[in-house]
Structure formats: C-alpha cells, structure tokens
C-alpha cells in the first residue's frame, strides 16, 4: 500500500486533519497512526470533554438550587456522584 499522507496521532487534531485530507484529496491514501487503543486523545478522554461535562452538571445543580431566583421552586439536591460519573463517561463514548 502506498500512503500519500501520514498523520501521526489520533487525537482531535489528527482526526480532523485526516478527515480534511480525505475530503480535499479523495483519491489519496491517508494513513492515521495512533499508539493508544482508542482514538480521540487526551482532550476527549481525560481533559476537555470530561471536565466540561462535569462543569455543566455542576451548573445545572446550582441552577436547580437557585430556582427561586427565577420564579421557580428551589430544589434540595441529593447528588449521586456515581451517576454523575456515569454521565461523564457516556458523553465520552458518544464523542468518538
């Protein structure tokens, strides 16, 4: 197999570059090399996406507690961190 383009790293940037190369050069052979067993990189699996998902959940909880400021009933929260973590992991799986 002859490779026209070689992209090293299957993180967010590598995936986008490989996709754009394939769009622009449809007949070209694009090869992507990733050392990990899943694509997406640190941002998707350990950094940006999980932390932003967790921050969003905290923002929703804060708004629920502050409902009276918006003319709504305030809610007393009983947070299940296991379920919050399950939600964070489910967003990670949907992102790839």
Distance between the termini: 27 Å
List low-pLDDT spans: none
The description of the largest β-sheet is: 2 strands, parallel
Compute the average pLDDT: 91
Count of discrete alpha- or pi-helical segments spanning 4 or more residues = 4
Question: How many runs of DSSP E, i.e. beta strands?
Answer: 2
Radius of gyration: 20 Å
What form results from the Cα inertia axes? elongated
Helical fraction:
40-55%
SSE succession: EHEHHH
What is the beta-strand fraction?
Answer: 5-15%
Q: What strand line-up does the widest sheet have?
A: 1-2
Class by alpha and beta content: mainly alpha
Overview of this structure, please?
With 96 residues, the protein is mainly α. The chain has four helices and two strands, in the order E-H-E-H-H-H. It has helices at residues 12-24, 41-45, 48-65, 81-95, and strands spanning 5-8, 30-33. It has a two-stranded parallel ribbon with strand order 1-2. Helix 1 links the parallel strand 1 and strand 2. Helix 3 (48-65) crosses helix 4. The protein is elongated, with a radius of gyration of 20 Å. The two termini are 27 Å apart. The relative contact order is 0.14.
Keywords:
96 residues, mainly alpha, two-stranded parallel ribbon, 53% helix, 8% strand
Question: What is this entry, summarized?
Answer:
Strand 1, helix 1 (12-24) and strand 2 form a beta-alpha-beta unit. By secondary structure, the protein is mostly helical. The model has no long low-confidence stretch (mean pLDDT 91).
């Amino acid at each position: 197999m002859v490779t026209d383009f070689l992209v090293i790293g299957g993180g967010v940037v590598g995936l986008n570059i490989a996709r754009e190369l394939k769009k622009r050069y449809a007949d070209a052979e694009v090869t992507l090399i990733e050392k990990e067993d899943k694509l997406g990189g640190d941002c998707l699996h350990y950094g940006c996406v999980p932390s932003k998902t967790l921050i969003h959940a905290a923002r929703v909880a804060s708004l629920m507690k502050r409902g009276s400021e918006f003319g709504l009933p305030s809610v007393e929260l009983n947070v299940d961190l296991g379920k919050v973590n399950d939600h964070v992991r489910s967003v990670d799986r949907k992102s790839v």
